[in-house]
Each structure stands twice: as C-alpha cells, then as structure tokens.
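User: I've been going back and forth on whether these two constructs are worth ordering. Before I decide, could you fold them both?

Assistant: Sure. I'll take them in the order you sent them. The first construct and its structure tokens:
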Amino acid sequence: MPLDILSTAIPFFFILAIVYGAIEVSGVFDNKRVGIIISVVIAFFTLTYEPLTLFINQMLPYAAIFFVIVFFLAFIFRPLKGEGGGKRDYTLIVVAGGLILLFLANYGYDALKELIPQFTNIDFLMAVGIVILIMVFYAAYKREKQGG
C-alpha cells in the first residue's frame, strides 16, 4: 500500500515542481496562484497516463543524478560571475575541477576505453594530471593578477 502511494506521489510532485519551476522562470503569468493551479492540473493529468508515470519512476534516479550535477556546477560557477562588483574566486573552481578530474581518473577510464581502445590507463592519468596542473597555474595567475 505505501509503495503504491509513493509510485503515484513521486511522479505527481516531480511534474508539479518542473512545471511550476518552468512557469516561474518563464514569467508567463504574473499571478503565482495561476501558475500553481496550472502546475497541479498538469501533474494530475500526468497521473492519469500510466505509461508516463512508469517512465518517470524508471528515469527518476537518473534525473536526480542530473539535478545534483547541475546544482553542483551552478554552485561552482557562481563565484565566476563576481556578483556585486566583488572579485572572482578561482580557487573554488580549481578545487572543484580537480575533484571532478580525480573522480574521472578513477571511474572515467573504463568509459574512455570503450571509445578509444588504444588509450591506456597511464595516458589517461597523465592527461588528468596535466589538466589539474594547468588549472592550478591558471588559478594562481588569476589570483596574482587580482592582487592577492
């Protein structure tokens, strides 16, 4: 019984959030109540079409991973904007980029091996190391150029 409720509630709230977010970002309606009503109606329509709810339940883990990556990238690239006339902080970008490259060094080799069979593990780690060094030198250059 609780599993049945979750299998219908999760697609409902997922579609509700996506449609409401799209309406808010687009700014089509000035009244937020109209956006909420339209979002709820579309989410209920989603529940009536069972193949779509099954598809959403199957794809939701991948969507969750995608949203985590997008929010992580948005968090990382926010300091690059330099909002409010402040200095841009390249240190956070380099640290996050280094962590991503180290993650790829551990798990990305197998995927790359499928694409380029003659690519060896040593070549991949060497490429990752060179990219990390370039990022560190670039961040140091930018930091020195900003005066600190």
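The second construct, handled the same way:
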Amino acid sequence: MYIPTFAYDDNGKDIEWVWNVQPLDKIFWKTWKPKLNNVKIIGLTDKKECARLQKEIWESVIESEHPKKEKLTGMYKQRGYK
C-alpha cells in the first residue's frame, strides 16, 4: 500500500515525515486523532531534535484538523429560557 510522505519546513530545511499507524487506512478517517507517537521523522538520528520536530508537527496537525470548540457564554450558554 502507498505510504504518503509529508514535508515540514524547519527554518528553511525540509524534514520528511510519515504517519506510523497500522492499518494505514486509519489516516484517511475523518474521526481519527493522531497521537504524538504516530509521527515518524525520516532521516534524523539526533533524538532531541527528532522529539522537538515530532511535537511541533503533531501540534500543528491537531490545531488545524481538530480545533478546540469554543464554549458559549452569556445568554447563549443557557439551553432553555424560563
């Protein structure tokens, strides 16, 4: 099966990464939320640098694909008016 490879721009340097998930069909589900360990960096050997990039990539994906819901405030917070 085809494994898509993604690129991340880290201060002008392209970093290749893939989703580390089994089965691979999960990454195409709309309800799937990736975990931090699902991001796999390709070609880096430095563990600290790899962990930093892994966290940055994961946070950007979560922020763009699964934003936090805004809670209603004021009169819109109440469900029923009495």
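Notes on the second construct follow. The chain has a mean pLDDT of 83. The chain has one domain: 6-77.
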